[in-house]
Amino acid sequence: MNIPANLKYSKSHEWVEFTSDTTAKIGLTDFAQSELGDIVFVNLPGVLDTVTAGESLGDVESVKAVSDIISPVSATVSNVNEKLADTPENLNSDPYGAWLIEVEEITGAEELLDAAAYEAFCKEG
Amino acid sequence: MELKTPLYECHLAAGGKMVPFAGWLLPVQYAGVIDEHMAVRQKAGLFDVSHMGEVTLTGPDALANLNHLFTNDFTSLVVGKVRYSTLCNDAGGVVDDVLVYRTGENAYLLVVNAANRHKDVDWMRARLTGDAALEDVSDSYAQLALQGPAAKGILEKLAKPGDIPEKYYSFVENAEVAGVSCLLSQTGYTGEHGYELYCAAADGPKLWDALLAAGKDAGLVPAGLGARDTLRLEASMPLYGHEMDDSITPLETGLAFCVKMDKPDFIGKTALAEKGAPKIARVGLKITGRGIAREHCPVFAGEAQIGETTSGTHLPYLNGAYAMALIDKAHSEPGTELEVDVRGRRITAEIVPLPFYKRG
């Protein structure tokens, strides 16, 4: 399983790349995409929407199931990866390249794990 | 605790992702649902369906009991043939849907849904009349499904031509496949040409391994429950617990072909006759908006809810989101534009003819 050392991770399997103290990129981890299976649709918020740490920011659908995407931070959406509308399968093939949203004005966050702690968390099941 | 099929170790060896299903631990997928689905449409897939229940009905009054218990008519079913039927309760709701194999003059093999096995056996046993015996033999069988355009060629490597059934819904008992004695039928639940193989539980792994090895060059892959569900939905085959259940009649879900109202009597006939022409219909929906409708999504015509979806997902071969729904018959014409509520969001859908997919 791929868990890049430079990212932070939520226990609901989102990754966060802080690009400054108040801005970040958010995506789904390799573990998440592997558990979901073939991803066929993703429903994301719009630019300027607010997202709240611990609450759903959208959902991701695989052939098998639908799953909420839990926002790891409280912030304002500054950019949305529109390419995923046509190529949701990139969430499977490139989970750390296929980011979901970028956010700014971060005011709070879930408990986030570093790579080693996240790896241990995934192994606990 | 979940039961393990005779193929459990084979699934682990093949990288199957095991999940609980109807009391069994079964692989939901190996490489991935889409790859497995496409393999069955274009090459071949091998499924473990050992969770299905097998029940024998034997004795001089076996046929009379079948015709009383089931909605279809088995009078013309000859040895070596298979017939699909529903089993109704007194109110006309569906207890289960089954395949009936005639294995002898007074002998039938019934294949029932895993989740309904004990319910069915109790239901039928309590209503048997005359000289007939019912026996649940599920635990003695492993059942494999070999499905896809390459299936026949793969079997031909392992079995004599005379042992491979040539017609749809026919079977050969005591066929020998890779040295394993099987009941081999040309049946399936994928919409493709294919076979189902019933063998002694202990022989299951040997048969599984032999089929996978023989099919390797033809592109045969192991396929899990995920692909089994997307394939049957793409082929628009109803699934018990979704398109039918104890409260839905076979006529409402579009299975009139297996309900013989001209039979003298069968359980549920009176209720079905009293209900008359069904007021709801099973339809196919192509989701034209953005999103995926799954089961139990309310379906709307304007502001009026007219029914709900019974199954739905992204269908890999058709490459789009589709659902089946039970709705008010007045709105069931193909071409009708409807809306589906997907977790609070209304998305557009259009009724399209069933089946969604039919092999060419």
Can you walk through the features of this model?
The complex is a heterodimer of chains A (125) and B (360). The longest helix of chain A has 10 residues, at 115-124. Chain A is α+β, with helices and mostly antiparallel strands and 125 residues long. Chain A has one domain: OB fold (Dihydrolipoamide Acetyltransferase, E2P). Chain A has a 6-stranded antiparallel β-sheet. Chain A contains 3 helices and 9 strands, in the order βββαβββββαβα. The relative contact order of chain B is 0.15. Chain B has a 6-stranded mixed β-sheet with strand order 11-12-13-10-4-14, sandwiched between helices. A 6-stranded antiparallel beta barrel of chain B has the order 15-18-17-16-19-20. A 5-stranded antiparallel β-sheet of chain B has the order 6-7-8-5-9, with helices on one face. With 360 residues, chain B is an alpha+beta fold. In chain B, a hairpin with a 2-residue loop joins β19 and β20. The interface between A and B is medium-sized, with 12 and 17 residues.
Number of strands of chain B: 20
User: What is the strand content of chain A?
Assistant: 35-45%
Secondary-structure-derived class of chain A: alpha+beta
What is the multimeric organization of the chains shown?
heterodimer
Chain pair sharing the greatest interface: A-B, 12 and 17 residues
- Calculate Rg of chain B over CA atoms: 20 Å
- Strand percentage of chain B lies at 35-45%
What CATH architecture of chain A do you see?
A: Beta Barrel
The CATH class of chain A, by name, is Mainly Beta
Order of strands, widest sheet of chain B: 11-12-13-10-4-14
Largest sheet data of chain B: 6 strands, mixed
Low-confidence runs of at least 5 consecutive residues of chain A: none
Number of strands of chain A: 9
Please count the helical segments of chain B.
8
Helices and strands of chain A, in order, run as: EEEHEEEEEHEH
